[in-house]
Structures are given as C-alpha cells and as structure tokens.
C-alpha cells in the first residue's frame, strides 16, 4: 500500500508543506489526501475527519500500512528511516546533527515570523511586509536569526554544485531545506529584506520541482478562507 499523506489547504498550511515537499522532491510515491480547512473548532468537519486518523486532529499525518505518524519532525524521521537510500539527512554525522538542530529550532521557534507573516502563497503583500518590518522588532530578530543560521550553513558549501546550481543548506537537498521551504514562501509573500546571497537561497528553494509543484497546487485551489486572512478580507 502506498504512503498516504493527509494535508490541509496548500495555500495556507505551512506544516503540511514540509513533508509533502520532502516526499515529492525525494521522488517517494504517496497518495495525497487534502482535508479542507473549515475552522479549527473542536467540532469542525476538519477536526472530526482527522480525529479518525490521529488523536490530535491536526495535519499533516502520514499513514503507512495502518501506522499513523504525525508531527512534521516525526514524519521526517520516519521517512528518512523508511527510505535510507534517499539520504534525506546529511551522511556526515556532524552535519546530520546540525541539520537536526536547525530543523528542531524551526519547529519550536520563530514565533513572531509565524504569527505576523502567516503563509499565504497566492498573496503578494509587500506593503504589509514593510509595515511589519517597521513595527515588529521580534520579526526583525527572527529574520536576523534566519540570516545568521542560513549564512553559516551556506558558507560551508561550495559556491556551485556539480550540476551548476547554487547549493542548499547542506549542499544537496535534505530535510532541512524542506523544513525551511514554508519560511521561504513567507519571505517572498511579504517581501522581507534579505542579503543578496540569502535571497539567492530563497529563490533556489522556490525553484525546486517539489516546491514548484506545491505552489502550483496552492494557486489552483482558489479557496479564500477569511479566518486565514489577517490582511485581506475578500476579493
């Protein structure tokens, strides 16, 4: 039986994007099951459907022959173990430890960026981004930390990969890049300022086939959800 991945709306669901991009970019076959966001109330259709799959009633959830794995880090670890030939973590033990560290930091941190710049792939909100950048010191601090983290990792990579592309965080594609893909989308949506070398990394992630496939799916949804739109009230 093929893997099944339960996700939310592609335009808004940053957590769903991570394992979807990971599986797609790695060429791992899976069945996508989208559970549309209607609300996050306890009795919503969204929650009711997902509680039949996992007790927390959230996306993403990976099903593998009846086994449910939820939480993006748990899914990433499971997929890496299930498909060791894909080398989804760096092969070097020190690089692998660093990759796990930066994913865990993303998983638990960057709260201001998440809160003030929710993922919205279809939107372009640079004017909102300018106001956020001006008024929210915590967002500026989160972006500064991203710049420090990404800059350190990219500085350790060659200027160019053997195929002529720019390097990713650990050279070739890894779980870390899938983990930061929604962050790259946020930075593009809100036009937050980045140094040129890090803007190149964001563009490199955005150009990955797995990311492009997710973006195209998000644009095809045409599903405007008011409760996911703090900055736009309608069309």
Describe the structure.
The chain has about 240 residues and is of the alpha+beta class. The protein has two domains: about 5-85 and about 220-230, Glutaredoxin (3-Layer(aba) Sandwich), CATH 3.40.30; about 95-210, Glutathione S-transferase Yfyf (Class Pi), Chain A, domain 2 (Up-down Bundle), CATH 1.20.1050. About 50% of the residues lie in helices and about 10% in strands. It has a four-stranded mixed sheet, covered by helices on one side. The mean pLDDT is about 95.
Overview features:
4 strands; 8% strand; 10 helices; 235 residues; 2 domains; 52% helix; 4-stranded mixed sheet; alpha+beta
Low-confidence stretches: none
| CATH fold call of the largest domain | Glutathione S-transferase Yfyf (Class Pi), Chain A, domain 2
- The averaged pLDDT comes out at 95
Category from helices, strands and their pairing: alpha+beta
Instruction: Work out the count of structural domains.
Output: 2
Give the CATH architecture of the largest domain: Up-down Bundle
Level of helix content?
40-55%
Radius of gyration: 17 Å
Order of helices and strands: EHEHEEHHHHHHHH
- Amino-to-carboxy terminus distance: 41 Å
CATH class of the largest domain: Mainly Alpha
Portion in beta strands? 5-15%
- Describe the largest sheet: 4 strands, mixed
Question: Strand order, biggest sheet?
Answer: 2-1-3-4
The number of distinct helices, counting runs of at least 4 residues, comes to: 10
Shape: globular
How many E strands? 4
């Amino acid at each position: 039986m093929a893997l099944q991945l339960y996700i939310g709306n592609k335009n808004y669901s940053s957590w769903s994007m991570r394992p979807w991009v990971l599986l797609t970019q790695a060429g791992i076959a899976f069945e996508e099951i989208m559970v549309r966001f209607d609300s996050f109330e306890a009795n919503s259709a969204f929650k009711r459907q997902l509680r039949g799959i996992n007790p927390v009633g959230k996306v993403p959830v990976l099903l593998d022959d009846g086994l449910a794995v939820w939480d993006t880090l748990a899914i990433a670890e499971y997929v890496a173990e299930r498909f060791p030939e894909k080398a989804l973590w760096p092969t070097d033990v020190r690089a692998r430890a660093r990759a796990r560290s930066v994913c865990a930091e993303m998983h638990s941190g960057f709260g201001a960026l998440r809160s003030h710049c929710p993922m919205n792939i279809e939107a372009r909100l640079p004017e909102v981004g300018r106001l956020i950048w001006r008024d929210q010191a915590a967002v500026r601090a989160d972006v500064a930390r991203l710049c420090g983290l990404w800059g350190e990792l990219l500085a350790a990579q060659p200027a160019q990969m053997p195929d002529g592309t720019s390097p990713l965080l650990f050279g070739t594609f890894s779980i870390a890049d899938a983990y930061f893909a929604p962050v790259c989308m946020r930075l593009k949506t809100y036009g937050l300022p980045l140094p040129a070398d890090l803007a190149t990394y964001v563009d490199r992630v955005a150009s990955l086939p797995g990311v492009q496939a997710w973006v195209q799916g998000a644009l095809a949804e045409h599903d405007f959800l008011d409760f996911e739109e703090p900055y736009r009230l309608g069309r």
